[in-house]
Amino acid sequence: MTTTPARPSDRPAGVPEPSVDVGGYVDLDRGLIDRTIFRDDVLYRQELRRVFAPSWLFLAHESQFAKPGDFFTTYMGEDPVIVTMGRDRKLRAFLNACRHRGMRVCRADAGATKAFTCSYHGWAYDTSGKLINVPNGEDYPAHFEQEKWGLVEVAQLDTYKGLVFATWNPEAPPLREALGGLGWYLDAMLDRDPEGTEVVGGVHKWVLEGNWKLAAEQFASDWYHVNISHASALMVMSPTGKGPKTEIVQTPGRQYADPLGHGHGFPTHPKSRFDDRVVHGWYDYEALRERLGDARVEGPMTTGHGTVFPNFSYLPVNGSIRVWHPRGLDRMEVWAWTLVDRSMPDEVKDAQRIYNLRTFGPSGIFEQDDGENWSEVQATAHGFMAGSMTLNYQMGLGLEGEDGVHPGTTGHLYSDGAARGFYTRWRDLMNTPAWHEKAAGQVTEKDTP
């Protein structure tokens, strides 16, 4: 028997949903995955409460908040949230849902305000989440305690070198601990400049058909598709127009797989820098070697790719950071920013922004290839025979280890290693009751791992 908490916000509402043991769907020792994980609605609902709700999720960049009252609206899984700077200049994040009837209290993408007022019945909240106005308040009973009906705040919010993350999970480890060994790789993008980073050009948003995991796993591990899917783009970008040289196409490289599900792949050939010439010409690579070390400049800082589990991805050389917001089984909404070093001159920042748009913007020459692949993969997932297929994730299996140069476990660039790591973490979270299930007394003997 469970007891009712004193405050409604302390207890996630809702009738317990069925939980599925996903261990039979992922055989990562043999590198095999059952396609059911991309097409089952019960599993998708389980992801929302056991993968997204307990995890640290990317919200925004610190540079989007310059003064008290600045706000930005986004999502954590499918939950709408407001990120705002309070009068004390502290960043906070709240569920974007009025405590009266659940309507969003803010329907703008971004801006500045002194209060968030629900347009349904007029309940209003200040930037610290406090309920400050209840129309016809005199008609509420004596036991109505207005101070207990503020916006639902995230359990934890923290930043990592400009990136803002939050989690609903009060039991989650600190952000830096949750990033694991990926921090060393992330810093190849985030720590080039003593002044830090900022985002420019706003947020680009578009919708793709496909399960969110397809995009997240690709950015964690999949260099394999580059020479095939992006052949025409590589041809256009090569100096001769005939495509890159063989030693570039078959570039050496490494792929890092973090035990917490993160991944980062990168070539190590000295010419594997398909970046804008203006940006490339501006960098002082000797100074970068002194700051970051040779291994990072010659590896993770090149034309690589990475994912912070579960749904934040980045491309260091393009300055692209993005979130794969889940929108059901078959759809994702991509939100993308262009990240630049603060000390870059304006013309270099603009060159990076334009280059990012041309390559990985919504109409970018690489991005369109990826979107088509994911939609085609998803299109066949609901058939009986095609949906029953076992998928092969065996590339690089058994070849991972310590290479003595890059921290942690790495394998060859052409590998499914980080994807296997991604699904290992996914499986473990899916099979572990989250904090809210324990608090609500929903854990059964069968649920306990």
UniProtKB/TrEMBL annotation:
<dbReference type="GO" id="GO:0005506">
    <property type="term" value="F:iron ion binding"/>
</dbReference>
<dbReference type="InterPro" id="IPR043266">
    <property type="entry name" value="RHO_NdoB-like_C"/>
</dbReference>
<dbReference type="Pfam" id="PF00355">
    <property type="entry name" value="Rieske"/>
</dbReference>
<keyword id="KW-0520">NAD</keyword>
<keyword id="KW-0560">Oxidoreductase</keyword>
<keyword id="KW-0479">Metal-binding</keyword>
<feature type="region of interest" description="Disordered">
    <location>
        <begin position="1"/>
        <end position="20"/>
    </location>
</feature>
<dbReference type="InterPro" id="IPR017941">
    <property type="entry name" value="Rieske_2Fe-2S"/>
</dbReference>
<keyword id="KW-0411">Iron-sulfur</keyword>
<dbReference type="InterPro" id="IPR001663">
    <property type="entry name" value="Rng_hydr_dOase-A"/>
</dbReference>
<dbReference type="InterPro" id="IPR036922">
    <property type="entry name" value="Rieske_2Fe-2S_sf"/>
</dbReference>
<dbReference type="Pfam" id="PF00848">
    <property type="entry name" value="Ring_hydroxyl_A"/>
</dbReference>
<dbReference type="GO" id="GO:0004497">
    <property type="term" value="F:monooxygenase activity"/>
</dbReference>
<dbReference type="InterPro" id="IPR015881">
    <property type="entry name" value="ARHD_Rieske_2Fe_2S"/>
</dbReference>
<dbReference type="InterPro" id="IPR015879">
    <property type="entry name" value="Ring_hydroxy_dOase_asu_C_dom"/>
</dbReference>
<comment type="similarity">
    <text>Belongs to the bacterial ring-hydroxylating dioxygenase alpha subunit family.</text>
</comment>
<keyword id="KW-0223">Dioxygenase</keyword>
<dbReference type="GO" id="GO:0016705">
    <property type="term" value="F:oxidoreductase activity, acting on paired donors, with incorporation or reduction of molecular oxygen"/>
</dbReference>
<protein>
    <submittedName>
        <fullName>Aromatic ring-hydroxylating dioxygenase subunit alpha</fullName>
    </submittedName>
</protein>
<dbReference type="GO" id="GO:0051213">
    <property type="term" value="F:dioxygenase activity"/>
</dbReference>
<keyword id="KW-0408">Iron</keyword>
<keyword id="KW-0058">Aromatic hydrocarbons catabolism</keyword>
<keyword id="KW-0001">2Fe-2S</keyword>
<dbReference type="GO" id="GO:0051537">
    <property type="term" value="F:2 iron, 2 sulfur cluster binding"/>
</dbReference>
<feature type="domain" description="Rieske">
    <location>
        <begin position="57"/>
        <end position="154"/>
    </location>
</feature>
